[in-house]
Design a protein that fits this description.
By secondary structure, this protein is α+β, with helices and mostly antiparallel strands. It is 53% helix and 13% strand. A hairpin with a 6-residue loop joins strand 7 and strand 8 (319-323). InterPro entries: PepSY-ass_TM.
Amino acid sequence: MRKLHLFFALSLGLFFVILGLSGGVLVFRAELQQAALPQVKLSVLELDNDAQLLPGPDQLFARLKTEFPDARLRSLKLPQRLMDPYLMTVSYQEQGKTRLEQFLVDPLGGKVGRQADFTSPSEAWIYELHSSLFLATPGTFLVGAIGTGLLVLLLLGLGIWGQGLVAAGPEQAKAWLMMSGRARGKGRLALLHRVLGFYFSPLLLLLVASGVLLVFREDILAPFETTRHELHHSETAGENAGHHQSTTEDISTKNCVGVPDIEDYLYQAEQVFPTGVATFIRFPRSKEQPVNVTLRQPGEVPSPLGLSRVLLEMNCGTVVGQQNGLALDWSQTLIERTVALHNGSYWGPAGRLLYAFAGFLPLFFMVTGVLFWRRRKNQTGREVTKIAQS
């Protein structure tokens, strides 16, 4: 078992370090992306006086259309914080061709900037390294294969620890669970490797296993996924986060007054889930398809935009389907929890900090493991020399 553990450690140790360090940084991926966005500075006094006068998404899109008159709104990501920009994805004509591009729109003055000008190169670089080792699709599968090997490495390490504990017996069990103040030098590092490896192995197993599941999602998780198209055929809106009963028929039978604008769609969606906050809206290619509004409700599995969705008829804004993020079926919950467990968001800010620390553990285990291995190798060499001399 020790030889197998050594083989996997020497073969995959460097990859473990690379994936660990890059993953530890990506725990703060949202903050890295946020830091690259243009920020609007507004004094507290101005905010108190003008908060109700800030332009809404319809006015801001009208501002964008002054620069791109034929622009058609395809999706809108709402600000996560009060003064963050709106992210609008629009299609427009340029030199006879239809282009699809993302724009950041200042929520105060309507200033328009291309999203491509406000990306975080460091975040993109680290993500590519972590997800594919810069090898695109083949690299993604390579990362999955490495992750599978790392699972074996971690399990072998636990097996070696268990063998040592059994061999030590009850009297020496404490030495396998706690640090000894008498250990010095390389011996102390070896002891740290053993003790910390035991206590942090569940966390490392969780991180590696969830990563492998995400890489091989199509083969492992996809068979359990509920098709998203079922949402279009919903006839009733179930119990929402506030335990209010609301049906699609109740909302959709309201009179259609004029053509709804962006805020009308958002308002209708938030009536279905009163405790939810709209985060994203997607517009269809044709008027026969529904407008899709994404919301985040308190208590949902953490995700970038939320898991609740409302579908609205495009011409009237009436509700034609919904998905309650608090009442997902088990397959959807499995997938969303796997994502949240891997990126650290499942445990909140404290969990993300713990994950960031865990990103440095592979480096620690590689260094201490090499030192431990060399120490044992030197001891073995000395013993062989003594035997030969005798």
